[in-house]
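For the sake of transparency, this paper describes our internal protein records without simplification. The record that follows is passed on verbatim for readers who wish to inspect the format:
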Amino acid sequence: MSGEEKAKAKGEQAKGKAKEAAGRLVGNERLTAEGRAEQAKGDARQAKEKIKDVLKD
């Protein structure tokens, strides 16, 4: 996995977790949903990079 893409994926996952936690803390469902969506985006980016690594070998 390229280092830049891996960092983006981890960053999106961390940002999503923080948003989700903040949303739960203040009771904001929209913020919680946005956090979950960002985590999913990071997960998808990470999966894409792993597939690219497997196909490259």
In short: The mean pLDDT is 92. The chain is about 90% helix and 0% strand. The CA atoms of residues 23 and 29 lie 6 Å apart. The two ends are 11 Å apart (CA to CA).
